[in-house]
Specification:
By secondary structure, this protein is an all-alpha fold. The protein contains 8 helices and no strands. It has one domain (about 1-175): Tetratricopeptide repeat domain (Serine Threonine Protein Phosphatase 5, Tetratricopeptide repeat), CATH 1.25.40.10. It has helices at about 1-40, 45-55, 60-75, 80-100, 105-115, 125-135, 145-155, 160-170. Helix 2 runs antiparallel to helix 3 and helix 3 (about 60-75) packs antiparallel against helix 4 (about 80-100). It is globular.
């Protein structure tokens, strides 16, 4: 009798491990699909794929990072109303990635760039960027470049008007990512 109960417990454990592995495989497939769409400048499809991957692995810093990047690029090419919604989603996911992996320099730099490039009413702001810069490792983040970027943004006073002018230039499609 004991023998069969041990076999049943072992098979249940193998079955749950297989479902966990299946979940990871599904998330990996969605993640690969999301990156394919991201690099093809299909940001809406990329965001959808990363959202699907996050349903399988909700605490993945990598998935939150890529979803934040996707929503950030989607905000860049959207009209003003959709841009604000997408920028807020970008902020949420980038901040979540940094919270899950606080030492990852790439995540910190992406969040810093979001704060510098987005107006406060989109969730960005130079104050947030300056506070984040203090948490970053100076050797990893090219501190001199980041400080210069912050100083340039303060000079330009990147408010709503600046963002709207840039948004008008980018609304012709995603060509802005291909041409400097």
């Amino acid at each position: 009798m004991r023998y069969w109960s041990v076999i049943l417990l072992a098979s249940a454990a193998v079955g749950s491990a297989a479902s966990i592995s299946g979940s990871a495989d599904i998330a990996a497939q969605w993640s690969a699909d999301g990156r394919f769409h991201f690099f093809a400048c299909e940001f809406k499809e990329a965001a959808r794929a990363f959202e699907n991957a996050l349903t399988e692995q909700p605490d993945s810093a990598v998935l939150h990072y890529w979803l934040g990047k996707s929503y950030g690029r989607l905000a860049d090419v959207s009209g003003p109303l959709a841009a604000r919604k997408n920028a807020r989603k970008a902020q949420t996911h980038l901040e979540r990635a940094v919270k899950l992996a606080p030492k990852d320099g790439e995540y910190l730099q992406e969040l810093f760039d979001f704060y510098v490039d987005s107006p406060e009413w989109f969730g960005g702001g130079l104050g947030k960027a300056a506070a984040l810069l203090e948490r970053m490792n100076p050797q990893e983040c090219n501190a001199e470049i980041r400080l210069q970027q912050l100083a340039d943004s303060r000079k330009e006073h990147r408010g709503v008007g600046w963002w709207m002018r840039c948004a008008v230039l980018r609304t012709s499609g995603t060509i802005g990512y291909l041409v400097p």
